Amino acid sequence: MEAVGADGQAGRRLPWPWFLVVVVVYLGILQGVGRLTGVDTSGSGGDFPTAEAVVRNALIPIGLSIVFGAAVVTWLGWWGVVSTYRVPVRRWVRWVPISMLLASLLGLDYGRLADQGAALVVCLLLLGVFVGVGEELMFRGIGVHVFKRAGFGEAEVALWSSAVFGLAHISNAVGHGAQAVVQAVVVSTSGYFFYLCLRVGGVILLPMLVHGLWDTSLISSLVGIEPVFHPGLVLIILLQAALIVVLIVRRRSIEPAPAPDTRRPFDPAPRP
What we know:
The protein has helices at about 15-35, 50-75, 80, 95-105, 110-115, 120-150, 155-170, 175, 180-200, 205-220, 230-250. It has about 270 residues and is mostly helical. It has one domain (about 15-250). The longest helix is centred in the middle third of the chain and has 32 residues, at about 120-150. The mean pLDDT is about 90.
């Protein structure tokens, strides 16, 4: 059984300002370890020219960040908490994870991957798994529950957990310059979609799956020595734009409709 804190909730309490500190440490691990173990890929046209580059530039730092996230969850006593999120949504929201999974599968650069060695392809697939597990554990696992326990409503939980997720990607400016700011804005919207995946599935495994496959599709055309533009990226970009429009228009119809009051006008109110 999980321990129950003074506020009646399972595990320790983590105030949201301290969650921001946790995120800073998490980013420090990603960037710091990456700089220590990484290899220079500036001489190639892509970010992932070899299996060694994927391992040293991505798998090692992301793997250690997963260990850190798991240690935080263990210290908080939140494993039972972060694994599930039973807050229903209306049925139409189910199309968010479905469409993202379909677009990811269709957008994968299968031809590019077929031209690479088996080791590089395996490392790329592992990278997708690591990103999905690590980022979802930190932001939809810990982050969502931090804001929820702080008393925020669902709209605020979605907003702030997604905003922190996007801002965290500004740390990529260490290697990619000002374009990381634009990436942070785009990633914030993706974070909102992953939050909805959590709501739809009720378990964190669904956003981990969607996130991992989504990122794998995005980077599948960047492997190898001389990557070229892949038309499948257009599908992913168009879907993201379409989802943004749909969610702006239908943002007020995400929550389930309230149950109708079946009492007759002169029925007495139920006793407490």
